[in-house]
Design brief:
The chain has about 190 residues and is of the alpha+beta class. It is built from 9 helices and 7 strands. Strand 4 and strand 5 form a beta hairpin. This is Crp/Fnr family transcriptional regulator.
């Protein structure tokens, strides 16, 4: 599992074997069954989580009990409740495995120590955080400005490896549309092909 992370990290920065060993020993591998939760709302999220394999989703419930998917994560992606992590508040979100998955978790103190002691890792993680912020802004803009069809196409094009791994009702939730609207959009698009 750590080999996947090592290959991923080496694709973005040059890091020594000694530093990789520090990172490896600070992390914990966790295997998840399909539908197993990694986080429940109300718990505290105190980890950095890298997905080695599988597929997870981050979601929360509204006051009517409807769940809303905020993001998906697949191999070589990161996932977590950033609000709970940084503000040290109980989580508002849930994380569950949509398939059998393996993740690497670093506790907050362990990760902060790694970031202090390995400048290359800190620089990489800063760039990663900036990219995540930009992606969040783009997603918000899409949700408030694009049609259901445009959002669906954008999701297919941007995340082709995610699209085929998640149930359609979760895709609808992620896109902020009903299942019925998603069915109509898919039907309309199939007619135009």
């Amino acid at each position: 599992m750590f080999d996947v992370f090592e290959k991923y990290l080496n694709g973005f920065c040059e890091i020594s074997q000694d530093d990789l060993e520090l990172i490896r020993h600070a992390g914990t591998v966790k295997k998840l069954r399909k539908w197993q939760s990694l986080l429940h709302d109300g718990e505290s999220w105190r980890s950095i989580c890298f997905i080695s394999s599988g597929c997870l989703r981050l979601y929360r419930y509204d006051e009517n009990g409807n769940d809303h998917t905020v993001r998906f994560g697949i191999e070589n992606w990161w996932i977590g409740d950033q609000e709970s992590y940084y503000q040290e508040k109980p989580a508002k979100y849930n994380i569950e495995a949509l398939a059998a998955s393996s993740v690497i978790l670093w506790t907050k103190p362990a990760w902060e120590e790694l970031m202090q002691n390995i400048p290359v890792l800190r620089d990489f993680f800063d760039r990663l955080s900036n990219s995540a912020f930009v992606a969040s802004q783009q997603r918000i803009y899409s949700l408030i400005s694009a049609s259901a069809e445009e959002r669906y196409r954008e999701f297919q094009e941007t995340y082709p490896s995610v699209f085929n791994k998640v149930p359609l009702h979760m895709v609808a939730s992620y896109l902020g549309i009903s299942r019925e609207t998603l069915s109509r959009v898919r039907k309309d698009l199939s007619k135009t092909k």
